[in-house]
Design a protein that fits this description.
Shape: globular
CATH class: Alpha Beta
Low-confidence stretches: none
Strand order of the largest sheet: 1-3-2
Helix content: 25-40%
Strand content: 5-15%
CATH architecture: 2-Layer Sandwich
Largest sheet: 3 strands, antiparallel
Structural class: alpha+beta
Radius of gyration: 16 Å
Number of helices: 2
Mean pLDDT: 82
Length: 86
C-alpha cells in the first residue's frame, strides 16, 4: 500500500475514496481513528489515502483531475431558499 494523498478532513477523504471506488480502485483512509486525539496530536498530517502500489499512479491522476475540475456553468440554482443575500 502506498499513501497517495493527505485529505484536509475526513469528509474529503471519504469523498475521494468513493470517487476512486467508482473507478475500480480500492483505497483506505489511514488515521481516521486518530482524529479524536487532535488536542494531543498535531492537527495536520493525520489522515492519508492509500492504494495498492500498482494503482498509485492512476489514483493520483484521478485525484489531480478531480481537484482541478470546475463546475459546469448553469449548474447553480437561480435562487437559494432560506439564504439571506447581503
Amino acid at each position: 500500500m502506498r499513501k497517495i494523498y493527505e485529505p484536509e478532513h475526513l469528509m474529503e477523504g471519504e469523498l475521494l475514496q468513493s470517487m476512486l471506488a467508482s473507478e475500480g480502485i480500492e483505497s483506505h483512509i489511514t488515521g481516521r481513528h486518530l482524529l479524536g486525539a487532535v488536542g494531543d496530536l498535531p492537527a495536520f498530517g493525520l489522515l492519508g489515502l492509500t492504494v495498492e502500489d500498482d494503482q498509485a499512479e492512476r489514483a493520483r491522476l484521478l485525484i489531480t483531475e478531480y481537484n482541478a475540475a470546475f463546475p459546469l456553468p448553469g449548474d447553480e440554482p437561480d435562487s437559494y431558499p432560506d439564504v439571506l443575500l447581503c
